[in-house]
Prior knowledge:
Elements: H1 2-19, H2 34-43, H3 57-68, H4 70-79, H5 83-86, H6 88-94, H7 106-117, E1 125-128, E2 134-135, E3 139-146, E4 151-157, H8 161-182, H9 184-189, H10 191-205, H11 208-221, E5 228-229, E6 242-246, E7 251-252, H12 256-261, H13 266-284, E8 286-288, E9 296-298, E10 304-306, E11 312-314, H14 317-332, H15 335-345, H16 354-365, H17 378-391, H18 398-417, H19 423-438, H20 441-463, H21 485-498
Parallel strand pairs: 5-10
Antiparallel strand pairs: 1-3, 2-3, 3-4, 4-6, 7-9, 8-11, 9-10
Helix pairs in contact: 1-3, 3-4, 3-6, 4-10, 8-10, 13-18, 13-19, 14-15, 14-21, 15-16, 19-21
Amino acid sequence: MRGIVYSVRLIGLAGxxxxxxALRALRDIEMIPPWVITALRLVxxxxxxRARLPKTRGERLAAALASMGPAYIKLGQTLAMRPxxxxxxxxxGLMTLQDxxxxxxxxxxxxxxxxxxxxxxxxxxQSFDRTAVAAASIAQVHKAVTTDGRQVAxxxxxxxxxxxxxxxxxxxxxxxxxxxxxxxxxxxxxLLDVAxxxxxxxxxxxxxxxxxxxxxxLASNMAGELGYRIPSVEWELSSKRVMTLEWVDGIRIGDRxxxxxxxxxxxxxxxxxVQIFLKQAMRDGYFHADLHQGNxxxxxxxxxxxxxxxxxxxxxxxxxYFLAEILFCFITGNYxxxxxxxxxxxxxxxxxxxxxxxxxxxxxxxxxxxxxVEEISxxxxxxxxxxxxxxxxxxxxxxxxxLQRTMVMAEGMALHLNPKTNMWETSRPVIEDWVKDNxxxxxxxxxxxxxxxxxxxxxxxxxxxxxxxxxxPPPVIxxxxxxxxPLLAVGLLITLILT
Length: 499
């Protein structure tokens, strides 16, 4: 019965893809058998195409997914982070997918606020603008004034969004399960994990208390950071389906002309957005992972204010240490140890050959070691990297995929503001400080001292074998300074995509 339901719904989705001229885009996804695409085209012959369609296949696929509703928008955004799954051209097209939908009525928003907060709308706000100032796939935002006169932004979930997402994501998971049971490539690409990631992200976004908690955690981490801040959360006016934040006046960072007209230093803003992202990711291990141009506002004084904290990324200390050690190996040309670290971290299956993997890393890195960064072809480099991931059956690491995606978004934002931005030089101060603060001999000694209680605990468990032995601490390495920074940045790109 479930198979019949999935088939009917799949045909309906195929009809929508054909209407937007996107069925041909499926040909670029190697794991989809050609006969499946042919069958879908045959059962949708009756569907007429739209008169005007985007130019590229990726953009047409993005338009089709946007027309299908909120869950498909989230699916497209997730696939945009997986060029190993859909290919680079489609991934680039999906990056254009906008998380915007028509607003639902202001009266519905008021009813949801009253239901969530209790009482009448006037008990909480002097005024509540019933026209939404922004509407996305999961929620929309209204401007309001609290009873004590403060301007705020009130985010309200869409009516019935939980049930609709649950139904659509169940279909994703069912199709992913079928694919993994019949395709080794689908198992390598972990399609069930992709579906689970879409579910995890959307379920989290549909509890606005979690988003409010993310905002306060990020604000705590970035306290004291000049030129960057997070709007304060009004907890007494927030719940699962309603979140109230301080209202922010300013110019969206995507409006470069308006920023220039207002007298802002766009070059400085470009550098700051990249450095802030690196500090969040490398220093704190917790970063804003939805850095599109609508989610950063520049206040009149030049301060960057981040908004919309539904998608956040987190890197554990262990992942950051492994990442640093791999980078250090690329910088020093020690590809054998770099390969060993990949195996130790679990990035490459144990059955693969360490020596062959080290040789593959050398083949990628050596040709660009002394090449000026502006002469490096990103497309050719990515093609090599994706070929390597397939050859060694490497599995995607969700936390590093999100880091990679956010890095691309931060870079795109910086280049929009200043096309001459040198990403390597911009990144250098942050990475240099992180290496000095985390991988120096002094820090290694401090970590060794901090590990003494764990060593004693392991010794106790060894003597008393009834208890399992605890996991070993993450590795710590000693780094040298005066590093070749452009190569470090390229190494970071290599590591993120390979992992």
